[in-house]
């Protein structure tokens, strides 16, 4: 099992959490899908819950803010050495700080922002908690994908803020997809995808992917529990995969990877 025992490099997707209107129901749903167990965060964390895989932190589920900007959704958090400095870079690159940097007890410091194309993401500066402790394993996060209608602008934003470099997979009118590498990384940790099929006016967004061993079985279970398949199970060069909308409408992908995913 790939295990992480130190902070993730700057710009790496290091954590995902679900902002939910019904945390107990969301926990029950994902326990069935991924075999997660749950642990309450310390008192004062506002009902936040850690999802555990074999006792290690894999993701989080917490109550949606009282004045939410949007519907329930999975939020991807990018690692940073200095959240306040990254906030200045986000603003300079055309992004918007939605929740200014604040301390999360002794765990770390974080902020929430929207990039230059409106996709929402978090920034996490690790202290006692560095993010995902398990990754690339069945039931764990294995890939993070930015879906955007502003392919070039989004690439430029993350290059300016986090120093991303890109490996182009395809750059045709039909399919534009580039994997990104944070500074110093030898392998890709996610990708930018031009989602031209997204409805006009729909928000751009980060899509988390979770590794599973039986995409069809997990998709069927999700449907029985109230989810919808936005992309039914299908084979790809990277493994069998599907994109689902959970019971609250939150989007996520599942994949049985054909090769190890070097991601958070």
UniProtKB/TrEMBL annotation:
PROSITE patterns tied to this protein: VOC
Classification via Gene3D superfamilies: 2,3-Dihydroxybiphenyl 1,2-Dioxygenase, domain 1 (3.10.180.10)
UniProt-listed Pfam families: Glyoxalase (PF00903)
Organism: Zafaria cholistanensis
Protein name: Glyoxalase
VOC domain location: 12-126, 140-257
Species classification: Bacteria, Bacillati, Actinomycetota, Actinomycetes, Micrococcales
């Amino acid at each position: 099992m790939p295990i992480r025992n130190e902070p993730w490099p700057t710009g790496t997707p290091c954590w995902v959490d679900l902002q939910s209107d019904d945390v107990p129901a969301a926990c029950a749903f994902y326990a069935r899908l991924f075999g997660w167990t749950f642990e309450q965060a310390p008192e004062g964390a506002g009902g936040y819950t850690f999802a555990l895989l074999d006792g290690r932190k894999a993701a989080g589920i917490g109550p949606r803010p009282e004045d939410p900007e949007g519907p329930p959704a999975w939020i991807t958090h990018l690692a940073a050495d200095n959240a306040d400095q990254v906030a200045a870079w986000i603003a300079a690159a055309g992004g918007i700080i939605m929740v200014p940097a604040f301390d999360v007890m002794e765990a770390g410091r974080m902020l929430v922002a929207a990039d230059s194309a409106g996709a929402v993401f978090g920034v996490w500066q690790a202290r006692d908690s560095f993010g995902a402790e398990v990754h690339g394993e069945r039931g764990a996060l294995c890939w993070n994908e930015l879906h955007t209608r502003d392919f070039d602008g989004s690439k430029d934003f993350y290059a300016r803020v986090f120093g991303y470099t890109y490996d182009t997979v395809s750059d045709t009118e039909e399919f534009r997809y580039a994997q990104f590498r944070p500074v110093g990384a030898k392998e890709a940790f996610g990708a930018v995808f031009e989602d031209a099929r997204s409805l006009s006016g729909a928000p751009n967004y980060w899509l988390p992917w979770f590794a599973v061993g039986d995409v069809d079985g997990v998709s069927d279970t999700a449907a029985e529990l109230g989810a919808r398949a936005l992309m039914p199970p299908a084979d790809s060069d990277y493994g069998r995969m599907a994109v689902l909308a959970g019971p609250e409408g939150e989007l996520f992908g599942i994949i049985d990877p054909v090769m190890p995913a070097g991601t958070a």
